[in-house]
Design brief:
The protein folds into two domains: 159 residues, 3-Layer(aba) Sandwich (Rossmann fold), CATH 3.40.50.720; 182 residues, 3-Layer(aba) Sandwich (Rossmann fold), CATH 3.40.50.720. Helix content is 33%, strand content 18%. The chain is α/β, with parallel strands linked by helices.
Length: 378
């Protein structure tokens, strides 16, 4: 079975889909691996590193796509590249399925079986394949590093001959994977951390990391079976905002990390809440790529709002591309291994398997995912 690892269509992307160590694992399965020339340049892996791992290097991307039984990449393919993928091939990458209907239609028309990494089910068996979580983990870390960079204060308490410097106060809104890593990182840097989430079930996790949990009585809340927070009513949102305004005003750093998959991110930090913050404070929005949690946030920019720095920098995992690439690569190989027939040395696309049902979006010339079909008709 021929696997081709394509370079990224987005020129700003620093991460890559497969590192040399993963090439070794794929070859041990019995696959033939080809990589696009220059694939690892952004993370300091040369073509020779991939050759040493057992891959062949292909200079022509279209040729690599046309010959492959399976295509691995990180970001979505460009529309004009889809026709180069041979019919019947399996394509695995992020696909942004709820915002890219034209791409899905092209993949289906080309006869490509497209697996969407964003839609890997959130279950115990799928943890090792869960790219959303692996990338969010690093994004949460980087959000704190950015906040420390833009803050006019240090994070830890220091007792010096010139006096005592109090620790920075960090408020983290949204306690998913990214939020938990942000809490842990801010605590390591010595900050005093408070966190909030609509799901009461995460309070124990917050406290286990040494942070305080902000309790707000907004009535019945909960989470979906995939572990995401359920959307709130307008009344609940207003109650939540009123309570968070005081904590935002008392904080030196606010980090927002609340997203609802397939929908625009909810506005959690309003202009009124920003008005309550002190000049010199910093707000980092981890949801900026899906609309943002912060009112007035600017996509991929840092803006000064009355002395408060609003950080809307995108692709935070891409700011630590080596480790982001390593974990994404591990997610990919775990998925391939899960459905690999060791005897025949091929990837078996079992459309009846619950994992495949969850993440397969096009197959047999059609868009086949139930969630996408429901979203289209709603």
């Amino acid at each position: 079975m021929q696997i081709f690892v394509a370079g990224e269509s987005n020129p700003k992307e620093t991460r890559v889909a497969v590192v040399p160590a993963t090439v070794v694992k794929l070859i041990k399965l019995g696959a033939q691996v080809a990589v696009e020339s220059g694939l690892g340049k952004s993370i300091n892996f040369s073509d020779q590193d991939y050759i040493t791992a057992g891959a062949t290097v292909v200079a022509d991307r279209k040729k690599g796509l046309a010959e492959a039984d399976m295509v691995l990449r990180l970001g979505k393919p460009a529309l004009d590249e889809v026709e180069s993928v041979k019919s019947g091939a399996v394509h695995i990458s992020y696909l942004e399925p709820f915002t890219e209907p034209e791409l899905l239609q092209k993949l289906a028309k080309a006869g490509v079986s497209a697996i969407c990494m964003e839609m890997i089910p959130r279950s115990t068996i799928c943890q090792k394949m869960d790219a959303l979580s692996s990338q969010a983990n690093l994004g949460g870390y980087e959000a704190v590093i950015l906040a420390a960079r833009y803050s006019n204060k240090i994070f830890p308490m220091m007792t010096t001959p010139a006096g005592t410097i109090l620790p920075s106060k960090v408020f983290i809104i949204g306690v998913g994977v990214a939020g938990l890593q942000a809490i842990a990182t801010a605590k390591r840097l010595g900050a005093k951390v408070t966190a909030y989430d609509t799901r009461p079930v995460v309070e124990e996790q917050v406290k286990s990391l040494g942070a305080q949990f902000l309790k707000i009585d907004i009535g019945e809340t909960g989470q979906t079976k995939e572990g995401y927070a359920k959307p709130l009513t307008e009344e609940q949102i207003q109650t939540q905002r009123n309570a968070m305004r005081k904590t935002c005003g008392d904080s030196d750093v606010v980090i927002t990390a609340a997203q609802v998959f397939g929908r625009r991110a909810p506005i959690l930090v309003t202009a009124d809440m920003l008005n309550a913050m002190k000049p010199g404070s910093v707000v980092v929005d981890l949801a900026v790529e899906t609309g943002g949690n912060v009112e007035g946030i600017a996509y991929d920019k840092v803006i000064d709002r009355n002395g408060v720095q609003l950080v809307g920098i995108t692709n935070l995992p891409g700011r630590v591309p080596l480790h982001s690439s390593q974990v994404y690569s591990a997610n990919l190989v775990a998925l391939v291994e899960q459905f690999w027939d060791k005897k025949e040395k091929i990837f078996v696309l079992n459309v009846e398997d619950e994992i495949i049902k969850g993440c397969l979006v096009t197959h047999g010339g059609k868009i086949v995912n139930e969630k996408l079909a429901a979203a289209k008709t709603s």
